Amino acid sequence: MFQFFESIKIEDQEISLLDFHQKRVNETFANFGKEGSIDLGKIYKSLNHDEDGLFKLRISYDLNKGFRTQLIPYAISEISDFQLVENNSFSYSFKFEDRKEFERMKIKAKADEIIIVKNNHITDTSFSNLLFQKGKEWFTPSTFLLNGVQRQHLLKAKKIKETEITLQNIQDFSHFQIINAMNDFDDMFIYPISRITNLPENGDYLEL
Questions:
Q1: I need a labelling partner for 121 at 20 to 30 A (CA). Which of 15, 80, 90, 161 fits?
Q2: Which of 126, 122, 98, 95 is nearest to 112 (CA)?
Q3: Going by C-beta distance under 8 Å and a sequence separation of 6 or more, which residues neighbour residue 99?
Q4: Kind of pairing, strands 129-134 and 121-125?
Q5: Going edge to edge, which strands form the sheet with 129-134?
Q6: Among 182, 141, 20, 25, which Cα is nearest to 94's?
Q7: Residue 14 neighbours by CB under 8 Å, 6+ apart
Q8: Which secondary-structure segment (H or E) carries 86?
Q9: What pLDDT was estimated at residue 203?
Q10: Residues of the chain whose pLDDT is less than 70?
Q11: Separation of alpha carbons 25 and 124, rounded Å
């Protein structure tokens, strides 16, 4: 059974953020006491992909270096609304295939997508990191669940800054957007903070 996965952006036959993806896979193997890793670049080349356009390459793998691949066309879609959901015990520091807790939170929510609150701090959505806008600057929560590859890339490039974002100061920000391997910074969907339906002033956030 495959335990982990990577979702990798392939655009016009070029693989995006390969170094960051490979680093995360290597760290996963090392953290669980395994030597070596799988070579993501070599796996992609073996697929002989020759179509332009935007694709998502999903590589599921285990710690015995077994893996499977899925390469599908990808389109970014708009999310109609978001809801804050509290979960103080949740941890997701590796890209585990087991996403049952995410699904449980989403089922209980009354919105398209959730924003997970842990110990009063904003973390991530069910599938992405977050950026929040204040003035002309963009910030990402320091209290992330998973340190995503796009997040690492943008911080390294100094395009965004890290800061503490809580239930008390979230409304100091005017807009937000989601980022992950498939969703770039400053992409087509930037949401007003009011797209979050249960901001503290509008009602209690959802406790699970």
A1: 80
A2: 126
A3: 126
A4: unpaired
A5: 161-163, 137-141, 129-134, 175-179, 191-192
A6: 25
A7: none
A8: strand 82-86
A9: 46
A10: 187, 202-208
A11: 20
